[in-house]
Amino acid sequence: MNTHRRLPNGELTRNAREYSRAWKQLAKPIELATNSKLYGYDPSFSFVSNEDPNITFDMGLYEVRKLIAALKNGSAALNFVNRM
What we know:
Elements: E1 5-6, E2 12-13, H1 16-34, E3 36-40, E4 44-49, E5 56-60, H2 61-73, H3 76-82
Helix pairs in contact: 1-2
């Protein structure tokens, strides 16, 4: 059965590889920033710490996009954190 899957950008696809790649690609900056590994996605992202497998956290698509934008832009919030 060829089911539709929703990509993070809201578009639909029937291609399972495209679907998986899109979600994993969006999660990659979070994995790198938090030293974690993605283990679940759609509609939210689930990560597990590479340092301690008992530490997990979830982020919604909105939060992931906002954090990636902040990382890209070197936002004022990140500048504030750097001064802490």
